[in-house]
Amino acid sequence: MNTCVICGRVLTQNEIGATKKLVNRNSTEFLCVSCLADKFGVTEEKINEMIEKYRKSGCTLFV
Ligand SMILES: [Zn+2]
């Protein structure tokens, strides 16, 4: 089971996918939506919108 490397929260498949998209496709350390938002200086809503956009476009990183 993957957890956020910053806050330790258990991650969803979409959060793992978002880290791969935003940080590094080969990343083995993942961040939750809150910590991704902090890291990139955006709102959690923005991250969720991005996840939704990729998910709708059929990206296999997202469920
Ligand atoms: Zn976190």
Question: Explain this structure to me?
Answer:
By secondary structure, the chain is mainly alpha-helical. The protein has a single domain (1-63), classed as Arc Repressor Mutant, subunit A (Orthogonal Bundle). The chain is 49% helix and 0% strand. The protein is built from three helices and no strands. α2 packs across α3 (44-56). It is globular, with a radius of gyration of 11 Å. The mean pLDDT is 96. Bound molecules: zinc ion. The site of zinc ion has 8 residues, from α2. Zinc ion is lined by residues 4, 6-7, 9, 31-32, 34-35.
Q: What's the CATH architecture name?
A: Orthogonal Bundle
**What is the element string, with H for helices and E for strands?**
HHH
- Share in helix: 40-55%
Query: Over the alpha carbons, how many angstroms does the gyration radius reach?
Result: 11 Å
